[in-house]
Specification:
Elements: H1 7-22, H2 25-46, E1 50-52, E2 63-68, H3 76-85, E3 100-103, H4 110-126
Antiparallel strand pairs: 1-2, 2-3
Helix pairs in contact: 2-4
Length: about 130
Amino acid sequence: MFNTPPVFSIYVMTQTLKWVKAQGGLEAMYKKNVEKANLLYDEIDRNPMFVGTAAKEDRSLMNICFVMNKGFEAKEDAFMAFAKQNGMVGIKGHRSVGGFRASTYNSCPIESVKALVACMQEFEKLNK
């Protein structure tokens, strides 16, 4: 052998693949990811305060981007503060685009998505 193999990378990949298998495999992971994304996209589409930034046919299962809808733009900072108060971290969007980005990667449990949806609904009730 001419070079030392990337042992740590191989170990991490092995552990990740074991975890995926324990979750039910790729098909089960895909189904969970679709469920999480649909839950959040349904709220974005339902809630008049928010609007998605991607066309429906181009929506991501992993990084769900949204902004305040027209007429609610001034509430962006208030929603960010409200979300942080309610335990939502890491949803601030890109610094040049603004808005919000919820990452629903494989290890993100559906309970986290439900918590964000509940936060969005509560913010809507408080700001009608």
